[in-house]
Design brief:
Protein name: Reverse transcriptase domain-containing protein
Largest sheet: none
Number of helices: 2
Radius of gyration: 13 Å
Distance between the termini: 20 Å
Organism: Portunus trituberculatus
Length: 72
Amino acid sequence: MKRVIKEFWEQIGDVDDVVFLSELEDELQGLLDVVDGYGRDFRVKFSSEKSKVMVVNRSDDERTPVWRLGEK
């Protein structure tokens, strides 16, 4: 996953909006962690207040996940 993010990071340049997709909750959190790490390395800030997550096909009995962006 880190290799994919590195390649992505080299291609994006200056962007306003980015979309990350994942089928699994823990994979998406891992992706957010890697992106946050690269952001710290390249001094790019992501706003957790402006960031949104859309969950598709979640059943009513599943818990609502908590996502962290740059927070431990």
